[in-house]
Amino acid sequence: MTDLSRRTALGLAAAAAAVAPAARAAIIDAPHAALDRPLTRIAWGSCANQDKDQPIWEAVLDAKPDLFVFLGDNIYADTRDPAVMARKYATLAAKPGFRRLRDTVPVVAVWDDHDYGENDAGADYPMKAESRRQFCDFWGEPADSVRRTRDGIYAAYVFGPEGRRVQVILPDLRWNRTPLVEKTFKGGYKAWAVAQGLTGKPTPGPYDRIPDLDATMVGEPQWTWLHDQLSQPADLRILGSSLQVLADFAGWESWINYARDHQRLFDTVRRTRAERLICISGDTHYAEVSRLANNTPYPIWDFTSSGLTEVWPVTTPNALRVSPVLRERNFGLIEIDWSPPAPTVTVQIRDEKGAVRISQRVDTATLRIS
Question: Is 9 helix (H, G, I), strand (E, B) or coil?
């Protein structure tokens, strides 16, 4: 576990509140009811500290999504004690807004580092099997779910009838992830970051690109699975990544730290001819839109929404950013227009009052392999 989290790096301590006692993780019913009707509104979010107020759920429910996708840091467990993790899941389960969401909207979820168990943790996190069990129990995975036994909780879902099928792919970026590489800063990262911030310049995080070609975000079994999923028929694909897919180069955790996997993702899209794919992501504690059209099968969009409770006030570099940056609590919303000849999506970032703060229209006819 590194001590270079966003809060620690600039001395921004998160407010701590007492958690409700619980002997084991609460179990949420109706985890992801199959939807045969076409989806027209998909909401997503990340980074929901269970010890903070969560008024944003009212705005999410007012948006009337057909599906909600949790992209990780759904709790801030940050522990190697199963009882502590269980209490934090129970605290989230008791949130009135979260409860209303679960009662009215189908939900799918994947984890990021804090609900996996520790800040920026990867394959060496010692409690990952127990964490997987609690995750699956909380989100109501069936007893025979493959997510309970394989090397990670990656999953994919298809919603809607033929001609209007939406595929949601959720990779696991923790279970098999090899170690990060930290840069060396004279006087330490914290001192450097504070000084950099005072200049008004963008302040990257402490991590560097990893030169080891064997380094990986996901591991070979998951690559095989991802290839198979991208080979499935779909009319719109949504890759729900707990980390940013495109940000270049923020210096925090993201796909681009693992250069081989980063390019392999786009190569896999090309080889499988997986058209009409957009990416949604979380983790950052701010919202933005990124776009890449070089060395990709077609323009790749990455819509980042974070966080539901967490805010990161520091300017972070990203050479592929094509939108303003929203440093307020937020969630994402995808509106789908199924009018022929190809679906059009309007992706919005909304604040905790429901106001649209960032909006981008994408004609999926442009997301084709020539």
Answer: helix
One-character DSSP codes across 76-94: ----S-HHHHHHHHHHHHT
Cα 322 to Cα 291: distance, rounded to the nearest angstrom: 7
DSSP reduced 3-state for 274:
coil
**Residue closest to 28 by CA, chosen among 152, 137, 171, 186:** 137
3-state secondary structure of 300: strand
CB of 297 within 8 A of CB of 369? yes
Number of H helices, E strands in the chain: 9, 12
DSSP state at residue 147: G
Residues 58 and 54: their CA atoms lie apart, in Å, by 9
Q: What pLDDT does residue 21 have? A: 29
Asked if 244 contacts 290 with a C-beta cutoff of 8 angstroms, the reply is yes
pLDDT of residue 200: 84
Between CA 111 and CA 186 the distance in angstroms is 34
Bridge-partner residues for 344, per DSSP? 337, 363
Low-confidence ranges of the chain (pLDDT < 70): 1-34
Give the residue carrying structure tokens 């679906």: 343
pLDDT computed for residue 36 by the predictor: 83
What does each C-alpha distance from 291 to 13, 22, 66, 167, 298 come to in angstroms? Answer: 32, 44, 26, 21, 10
Cα 368–Cα 369–Cα 370 angle in degrees, nearest 5: 110
CATH code 1.10.10.10 for 6-13+42-366: no
For residue 252, give the nearest of 73, 84, 56, 130 by alpha carbon. Answer: 73
Give dist(CA 46, CA 254) in Å, integer.
15
Q: Where are the domains of the chain?
A: 6-13+42-366
In this structure, the number of other CB atoms found within 10 A of the CB of residue 188 comes to 11
Taking a C-beta distance cutoff of 8 angstroms, is the pair 167, 212 a contact?
no
Q: What are the E-state strand segments in the chain?
A: 41-45, 67-70, 107-109, 155-159, 166-170, 236-241, 277-281, 288-292, 300-304, 330-337, 344-351, 356-363
Q: 370 is written with which tokens?
A: 């020539």
Three-state secondary-structure class, residue 211:
coil
Q: Using alpha carbons only, how large is the chain's radius of gyration in Å? A: 19
- So what's the pLDDT on residue 34? 52
